[in-house]
Amino acid sequence: MGRLESAAWPLAGGVLCVFILAIVLKTAAWPVGFALVAASVAGWSLLAPPAAGAAVGVAGWAFVTGFDVNKTGELTLAGGGDLARVGLLVGLGLVAGAAGRLLAGRGRWAGDSDPDLWPAGHAPDREPTGRVPDPWAGGASPHQPVPRQYGAGQEHRRTVPVPGDSTKESKHA
Question: Does the residue 3 lie in any domain?
């Protein structure tokens, strides 16, 4: 997915994860909650474009500030500390998102670059660049008709039911 729709699940998962961490760690010291939220922002941002990573960072800052720093659930701005936290989380989301795009461009996800992770004889063919070729390139469609099996010598004909006739295959006496 090359469009922004590739950010939907990482963005939703990242925001939900930082929200849950901020709520659960509300009673802990705020640096503990901040550190775990920062790790979550970095992890989820690896799977998203940089803009979505920055959005997860903004959400992380809002939840950490509201639940871990203030402990009341209210989002208030306190000056330099808030600016440093938002800068760090948004920057972390941007950098992790860019790193994720770079790694995905090199085929580093899901064991793609390690032929030892594929079952014997099932490793995909590779181009000279090392990337796996797109099986649907060149006009082939991933939407092929499903073949149907019928008995020997039978041909499938679509029949329209006639009112009054039974639609069951056999009639009972």
Answer: no
